[in-house]
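Exercise 7b. Backbone tokens:
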């Protein structure tokens, strides 16, 4: 498929120029057309250099992030909420400066295992901040995509239905859903129904196996997922995401609880993932076509 991306943590958790260069080179070489960078810290690399190298490799880029506790916009503490708004505004600017059009991830709360229930005021604070950030992002040509993640990684939005209610409260036409098969497998009554429900509010999509390892090595029903994506007319980026203890990032690996080694050979992993996704997507399109043919 054309719009296939890969998460940079398949390659590296580092942000040195050499780390980023290697990640781009391998993504390009294996036929991926987009690379996703999480938690980019502009103090650690040269934004203009990265934008140029992305163009050289003909790679589109998506930026994802999760808010830190000290910038949790679903907090009831006004100073913490303000800090979160600054972090989000910076992330929009970085996405724009890299030539990206999508900012995704856990933009609406901290990315953490909460030890308390979400609050009404926290929801309202998050809605208010994101509707303002979405306006600025729109001027920058960047959409906000709320990643619906499982209960151990946020307490605010765990299902697509919750995400849609949240988006409606913002009143923004620049906020979309970022769905992920790994998380949907945990939280949704039926991932197929979730994709249908999202409809044209689906803005970005992560393909990950239930154990976050090789596609096909877990319980996610990928034929049904691709049927649903084709049926809903989703024609935007799909990004392969997989984690192993082989690639460690101090923050993200710990929050995502990547304790085990589910692969060591990331070239083999990425090559097989692309073939797997291309096959499932082509099958789904052939089925849809055959079903329409009298
Ligand atoms: Mn994801």
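Sequence design result:
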């Amino acid at each position: 498929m054309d719009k296939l991306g890969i998460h940079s943590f398949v390659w590296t958790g580092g942000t040195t120029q050499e780390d980023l260069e290697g990640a781009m080179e391998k993504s390009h070489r294996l036929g991926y057309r987009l690379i996703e960078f999480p938690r980019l810290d502009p103090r650690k690399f040269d934004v203009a250099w990265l934008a140029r190298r992305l163009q050289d490799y003909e790679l589109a880029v998506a930026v994802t992030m999760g808010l830190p506790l000290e910038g949790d916009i679903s907090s009831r503490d006004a100073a913490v909420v303000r800090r979160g708004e600054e972090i989000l505004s910076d992330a929009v600017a970085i996405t724009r400066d890299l030539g990206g059009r999508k900012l995704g991830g856990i933009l609406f709360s901290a990315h953490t295992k909460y030890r308390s229930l979400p609050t009404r005021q926290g929801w309202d604070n998050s809605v208010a901040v994101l509707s303002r950030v979405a306006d600025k992002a729109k001027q920058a040509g960047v959409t906000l995509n709320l990643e619906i993640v499982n209960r151990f990684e946020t307490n605010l939005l765990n299902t697509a239905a919750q995400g849609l209610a949240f988006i409606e409260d913002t009143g923004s036409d620049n906020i979309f859903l970022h769905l992920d098969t790994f998380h949907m497998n945990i939280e949704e009554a039926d991932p197929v129904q979730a994709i249908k429900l999202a409809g044209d509010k689906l803005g970005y999509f992560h393909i990950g196996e239930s154990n976050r390892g090789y596609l096909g090595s877990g319980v996610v029903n990928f034929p049904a997922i691709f049927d649903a994506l084709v049926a809903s007319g989703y024609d935007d980026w799909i990004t392969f995401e997989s984690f192993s203890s082989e690639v460690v990032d101090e923050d993200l690996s710990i929050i995502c609880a990547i304790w085990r080694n589910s692969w060591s050979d990331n070239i083999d992993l990425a090559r097989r993932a692309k073939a797997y996704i291309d096959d499932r997507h082509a099958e789904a399109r052939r089925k849809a076509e055959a079903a329409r043919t009298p």
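Instructor comment: The CA atoms of residues 67 and 185 lie 23 Å apart. The mean pLDDT is 96.
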